[in-house]
Amino acid sequence: MSDFFERKKQQLNIDLNDVQQQAVLATEGPLLLLACPGSGKTTTMIMRIGYLIEEKHVNPRRIKAITFSRASARDMTERFTRFFPDSEQVDFSTIHSLAFTIARSYLTKIGTSFELIEGGGKGRPSVTKPFLLKGLYKDMLKEDGTDDELASLSTFISSIKNRMIPLEQWETLKGPVDKAGRIARKYEQYKSRRQGHLLLDFDDMLTIAEQALREDEELGNHFRNLYDYLLTDESQDTSLVQHKIVEHLVAHHGNLCVVADDDQSIYTWRGAEPDYLLDFRKVYPDAQVLMMERNYRSSQDIVEMASKFIKRNDKRYPKEMHTTNGKCEPITIRQLDNPKQQLEYVTYELLGETDLNEVAILFRNNSSSTMYVNELHRRGIPFFMKDADDKFFSHWIVKDILNFMRLSFNTERKDIFAKIVMKMNLFISRSMLTKFENAATTGNVFDAFIQTVDLKDSQAKKLADYKKGYAVIPEMRPERVIQLIRHDLGYEAALKSRAEKFGYRIDNLLGILDTLEGIAAQLRTMVEFANRLKELEKAVQNAKFNPSDNAVTLSTFHSAKGLEFRRVFMIDLLKGIIPSEEDEHEQATLEEARRLFYVGMTRAKERLELLSYGQDEGKTKEDSRFVNEVRGLLLRPRPAKEEPKSVKVTKASIPLNPEGIQDSEELTVGTTVKHRVFGQGEITGREGNELHIQFGDMEKRLDLETVLSLRLLEKLVI
Ligand code: ATP
Ligand code: MG
Fold it and tell me: Nearest-CA neighbor of 305 among 537, 638, 671, 677?
């Protein structure tokens, strides 16, 4: 056994610490490993798998490792191969793919055919989830839902299924749009309206798999017998239905290792249930719970700052992240003048980097990435994108702008004119347009429209002006053309009234136009511009599927979970972006946004740069409150101990132990105590505000104030 650790130390230069070793060795029965970022959760999990195979001679096929996303499944497979090159591969997969296998067997068994309406797999579904929701929204609320509304409706449905809320209760739930619960029910009805055939979204896979394991004994036993050991990483983002699937699968042997960090829980909006972990022992009464607080990843500055930062959250399991890593460079906070300068700064810095694999640019919203894609592509800097945002290129605004441009090549094209005339802020109605389309006109579309349709003088005058505008477009550079479309051809004004009418966020829409202008900036002709968009779309797809060997990573904070880089740029850290306006509404969502920021910060090994800008298109921008929090903490050298927040912490999440010691006098050297996580121990010393306790062969140093206020210790009379 110890040979195993010694061997791995020699081979990999990873010397597992006591708790990590304990976690590796505790192969039988349930284990919860709660730990800080960079403390080696994933590493330990992989070592444990290797240990099972090399030392306990478990067949790799009988081990199932569940990861959060397909990307992390790939990351784990790669790490496993690096650690155990001679071993047969273990199956790392997402809970969704496991659920899919189970649901498919079940549906086949009961003779029900099905069709996936989400995720765009093989073949084209007859209908998609967004399409269905769009129709149902209109049916129920008698108006079109905006993209944002439909997206939040979709998330709402996903979250109620993940939370396993029974169908009968859906209508009573408060949803993101009016009658959300009813729309959700109708959606379910529609999907199963054909006898013997189901339309299924991703979440149905989970619900069906859970139900099948619970109700169908034969099928349940088949899947229970497939694996002897289960492990789940990033379990703070596991939802209730997913936890239940796992429960069913380990019901026979209980060999389950759950690895999590509640401070990195960033998907509760989608139904993740981090509180499940706090009740882990209710489900698995004989579970071992281990904590790891030493961060191996990041420099001292980063670890200390991140640790102080996350303590601002009230609802959390108390942890004291620390490191023995040395100092590197202090965290940099930089406010640039505008987005362009931020972009220039980052690209300039990248040009000086040789190992781009060790650098990441992280952002809250995918929309931030397009300008970076453009600049990196232009300069030939290779990049990798985990969840590439090729949606930008098919956005209707991009199509509009291209159509506006296209018309300038031939102002007799009625078909193109028909696509944009209602977007010129002329208050043209659908019936006016139909009349024009049906009329047999020829020649310049502006003249023809004025002649065919009954217009107000002001409308006719504007159209005549637009015609003049169009005459000069072919001579212009594309950047100037976009500005002309925005300001002189009424597009931006039309966009604003459309945004008001349909509830779109105008800033997002204008952002797309700004990005297009940015892309056009270095180009000479509209043809070059159109080609450039195509090229970029291809580059984004390539960056996802065939990244170069040495590429900088572009990622959202969400998708960066679990990863690490020597240098991290967190960009666009502005008020309204992180936290978003909606995040600010409630304490819970604000804390989730803070966790998201924390996930970003803790990706950096040596260098962390927090970037924002002060102006955008003449509008003043404010820094994210989280940047200000870090700024404040940087100014105060050692507030960690006095910070009252760290003490209040978990009141909301962990019930206080009524037997827990509250009086410091009771904590004398030699006293035997029981810690809620570490179990039985003996107090071996007290130093200032630190309490030394020997738990088995592990000595822990605990913060006295935290121990008392959270009543973490109980006196044991032996
Ligand atoms: P996250 O919460 O971000 O997912 P994690 O807890 O899973 O982080 P890992 O990714 O497993 O952490 O480990 C972080 C880094 O620390 C890795 O580079 C890993 O190789 C290193 N590491 C972990 N444990 C040890 C150890 N005992 N000795 C040396 N390095 C270690
Ligand atoms: Mg990890």
Answer: 638
pLDDT tens-digit profile of 550-607? 999 999 999 999 999 999 999 999 999 999 988 998 999 999 999 999 999 999 999 9
Tell me how long the chain is: 718
Report which ligand 1 atom has the smallest distance to the Cα of 13: 29
Whether 233 and 351 map to the same domain: the answer is no
Name the CA radius of gyration of the chain, rounded.
Answer: 29
Residue 17 Cα: closest atom of ligand 1 = 27
Dihedral of CA 504/506/507/508: which sign?
Answer: positive
395 Cβ closer than 6 Å to some ligand 1 atom: no
Per the DSSP assignment, residues forming a β-bridge with 34 are 260, 291
- Are 186 and 227 within one domain? no
pLDDT in tens, 215-270: 999 999 999 999 999 999 999 999 999 999 999 999 999 999 999 999 999 998 88
Q: Cα separation of 414 and 436, whole Å?
A: 9
Mean pLDDT of 542-550: 81
* Residue 600, ligand 1, Cβ within 6 A: no
The per-residue pLDDT for 648 is 30
CATH value at residue 579: 3.40.50.300
Same domain, 234 and 280: yes
Pairing of strands 359-363, 552-556: parallel
Distance 564 CA to ligand 1 centre (A): 9
* 296 within ligand 1 shell (Cβ under 6 A): yes
Residue 636 Rama label (left phi>0; alpha psi -120 to 50; beta): beta
450/457 Cα distance (integer angstroms): 10
Same domain, yes or no: 402 and 449: yes
> What residues pair up with 94 in beta bridges, in sequence order?
67
Encode pLDDT of 1-31 as tens digits: 568 999 999 999 899 999 999 999 999 999 9
The closest ligand to the CA of 39 turns out to be 1
Distance 488 CA to ligand 2 centre (A): 52
Q: Return the best residue to mutate from 10, 24, 32, 43 for the ligand 1 pocket (most ligand atoms within 8 A of CB).
A: 43
Residues 287 and 312 in one domain: no
Is 493 inside a domain boundary? Answer: yes
User: With left for phi above 0 and alpha for psi between -120 and 50, is residue 234 left, alpha or beta?
Assistant: left
Q: Are residues 420 and 487 in the same domain?
A: yes
Closest CA to 435 of 450, 423, 425: 450
Q: 35 CB under 6 A from ligand 1? A: yes
Q: What is the pLDDT of residue 717?
A: 77
Distance CA 424, CA 515 (A): 20
The CA–CA distances, whole Å, from 132 to 10, 156, 171, 174 equal 57, 15, 18, 21
**Does 323 fall in a domain?**
yes
The tens digit of pLDDT for each residue in 257-288 reads 999 999 999 998 888 888 899 889 999 999 99
Closest Cα to atom 17, ligand 1: which residue? Answer: 297
How many domains does the chain fold into? 5
Ligand 1 centroid to Cα of residue 36, in Å, is 10
Range of the domain at 688: 664-715
Ligand nearest to the CA of 296: 1
Closest alpha carbon to 405 in 448, 465, 469 = 469
Q: How is residue 464 written in tokens?
A: 């005549």
Report how far residue 409's alpha carbon sits from residue 505's, in angstroms, rounded to the nearest whole number. 32
| Residue 674: its H or E element | strand 672-675
274 lines ligand 1 (CB under 6 A): no
Q: Which residues does residue 623 pair with via DSSP β-bridges, in sequence order?
A: 574
Asked whether the predicted pLDDT for residue 303 surpasses 70, the reply is yes
User: What was the pLDDT predicted at 641?
Assistant: 47
- Domain edge (last residue) among 294, 323, 358: 294
Counting ligand 1 atoms within 8 A of each CB, the residue from 261, 296, 558 with the most, and so the one to mutate, is: 296
